Amino acid sequence: MERLTRWIVRRFIRGWEDVNDPNVRSRYGLLEGYASIVFNFVLAGIKFALGVSMSSAGLIADAVHSLSDMASSIVVILGFSISSKPPDPEHPFGHAKAEYVATLVVALLMVVVGVEIGQEGVMGMWEGPREDLPPLTWGLFAALMVLLVAKELLGGFSRALGRMIGSSALEADAWHHRSDALSTGVVIAGLWGRNLGLPWLDGAAGVLVALWIIYTGFKMAWDAVSPLLGEMAPPEDIEAIRTIAASVPGVENTHDIKVHNYGHFNFTTIHAELSDRLDVHRMHELTTLVEMRILNRFPGECVVHMDPVNLHHPMFHLVFDALKDAVIAHPELVEFRDLNLWSDEGLERGGVEITVNPNTPEGRYFDLAREVEREVRQKFPALDFSVRLKVDFSAEPLKAL
Question: Is residue 286 a contact partner of residue 271, using CB atoms and an 8 Å limit?
Fold first, then answer.
């Protein structure tokens, strides 16, 4: 199916290779949406006609299911049409997250369909057999199998398009198509049950498939809600950003890396530690260089916060090593950054920020900070030292050499 889908894409989508272009992504979504609408309209008509001829409530309900697939495809079309719109004053980062909204709507439609199929299955088992129902013929069986395979192929087509552009909306619609194919399989099982003297088979199979459809719908809904709430960037992206920033000469350390993803627009923030001996113009030049290199890999917008550190203080490396030992010795601590030492009116002062394990209760923060401060002061009695604690999900735990 992948090969056939690529053949279709090359002939119907202009600029099909540039899947990062919102307009090209929109063309993928529109191709899937319109193809699904036409396909499902034809299938629904055939199923309805066969359902009436067989006096099969299940087959008629399956026709309605195919019509609901048309509704989900309309949602997909709307989602991709909105997502391709450029940024505006109300949505300065674009509209790419409309794809996730479309996924959520399709997933909820799947749950509704699953509930309806489950109700029909329970009612079929409850009402018992009817003696006036015609049996399933081989001709009808062949026709229904053709419909089932056709719907499975449509699902495969949608799934392949979704994977080509990384779209959860298209993959959700593919699962909706598969649920329709499964419901057709339930209808076939129920009709075959008439021939075997097992009329309850229709209802039982319907309940099982309904539960699977409901589970899949809820899972897809969560997969859509999670990025809408704001997911953490993948670890490989965080590491790539850290590596890019570290490649700029003069950047001593990086931390507090955050990436807010809006489709293919990334809003990235990062803290970069620079020597405080650099003048402000050189600091600005370095941070701008970091921004440009990150944007080349992660398009969108990037903000680099400068953290000047006194690397040349005579106690810097001694305190650094002491802090490293203290952080490694405390399982609740992760790493430290922004170590600064300075002289103030004849006194030596210093401060550092330490990240804590996200599972550490906030009530422990004060005691942990005081413990580290005591350990540092024991080694450097003349140093007035303070510790700040915070959570940073991009932090990398320190390891002993």
Answer: no
